[in-house]
Each structure stands twice: as C-alpha cells, then as structure tokens.
C-alpha cells in the first residue's frame, strides 16, 4: 500500500497536462477578437448596475472660469447649466453676484436631471488681469489648484480612509480670451503656459458676436499658431489620446479650438419658439444655434462627451504628477 501510494504521485507527474487543454474548447472558442461565448451570460448588466449606482450617489464636477471682468464668465456658466449657478442666494428671494475681489471664491450647487445628481462647484477668479501691473496674477490660481490636490492627497494617505474621498480638485479651467482680433496677449500666453501643466485648460473667445465671421476665423487661426509656437498644450491634449477613435474625435475638436462663444441667460421668442439669446437692433443672436456661435461645441465638450475624460485626466495625469512630486519631497532627508 505504501509502495503504491508513493509511486502514484510520480506517475501523475509524468502525465502530460492535456486535460485542461481538452476542456477549454467545450466552453469557449478563442479567436482574433478574444473569447467567443456560446450563450448569454449577462455581462452587459454591469452597465445598468453602474448607472443605478451613479444615479443614487451622484458625482462631482468642479469647473473654474478665468478671465478679465466684463467678459461674461458668470453668464456663460449660467448658460452652460441653464440655471443661475454662478450666483449664491444669501437670503430667500435675494441673489447677489460673486464680489469682485482678488481672492478666489467657489459656489456649490446640486443639479439634478432625469434622476442624475451632480454636485457642481464653480470657482470664479474676479479681478484677474484687471490691474495695471498683472505680474504673477496667476499665482493665487495655481496655489488654489495645488491646495485642492493637497487636500485630496492628505485624505488618500490616511490609514483609515473614507469610502468616498470628497473631490474638490478642478477638473476643467475655461479661459476667456478677449475678442480683440489680434494675437494673444503676453498675459494669455503666460497663463495658459503655466496652468496647462497642472489643469485642463479650455480656451474660448468671449463675446464672439463682436467679431464678423471673417475676423473670427482669422483670430482663431492666429491663436492656434500662437499656441503651437509656444508649445502650449490645451485640452484635449494630443498626448493623452488612448485609441484611434479618440484621436479622430479630438483632432476635430482641436481644429476648432478656441471656441467662439456667446453667453445669454435670457429667453426670446424666435419663430414661435423660446430660445436663449442676445437681443440686438439687428436681430437675436441664438446661443444654441451653431450658425451663430460655437457655444454648443463648448457645451458638448465640457458636459456631453468629455466630462468623464476631464475627470480621468485630472486624476490620472495632473493629480498623479502632483502626488509623485509631493511624496518624493517628503521622502528626501
């Protein structure tokens, strides 16, 4: 009995492992596209699970608007989300605008649409570029963005962490360029050069209805040349395209950046329909009409097509760079 039991493992060890290879074709068949299933498994149900969970918990989106006073930053944010999200009600029935101070101020709202809740934080930068000497006027903005990274990092490295860390990191920065029709100012170039390294910068031409179509096209071409000459990478960055489909989509967006936008938070009657627009003596500039301005392209980029990508790049690229730098600094003697 002992001899038989001692020889049995040796005999099993000499047998070739052919059983697993023979059983595999019974359940799956491998091909160029991977494993092909012979029946319905229900893997696609995970999408419904993710949708239901997201609808219950909601998600966070933080946006920053930067530009000189009078370029319509608050109006543009209100137009994006079709509500007065850039103003904070301090008392019932009373609204007040974000005060024009040097310090950055954030306003948070919870927006719900078709059962999906979004915690939206809008950070305004009043006073940016309004002084005679605008040297280092971007320092408070850089400091604020890094402070949000630092706050997230401190929560992340705790031994006992929260199940969901509050995310106050800036996912997108919309930079408003005055519609001068000339080249970019040194202030614009320096701001985008510095900020594009730590946050997703989306440049737009503010109040584009002050330019003719020919002036707008020429101004956009000059801006694109300036960005290329100074090696400024604005969102969507070409280096972060994951696959050919993303590259093809983003190439079309990059050709049209910066978007020439017009903001309006008042409705007007046009051909029997209520539309958002700006009323002039020549007619009404319809904000959501692609023939009038490129606001629909900006809205699609920030909300409908690239919102999750903005959050992913913020977490995987910009925050990751900050985290590596901070941990390296803390490990140095």
TrEMBL record:
GO terms for biological process: cell division. Pfam families: Septin. Its main location: cytoplasm. Residues 1-29 are annotated as: Disordered. GO terms for cellular component: cytoskeleton. Keywords: Cell cycle, Cell division, Cytoplasm, Cytoskeleton, GTP-binding, Nucleotide-binding. InterPro entries: G_SEPTIN_dom (IPR030379), P-loop_NTPase (IPR027417), Septin (IPR016491). CDD domains: CDC_Septin (cd01850). Residues 57-329 form the Septin-type G domain. It is found in: Cytoplasm, Cytoskeleton. GO terms for molecular function: GTP binding. Belongs to the TRAFAC class TrmE-Era-EngA-EngB-Septin-like GTPase superfamily. Septin GTPase family. This is SEP12 protein.
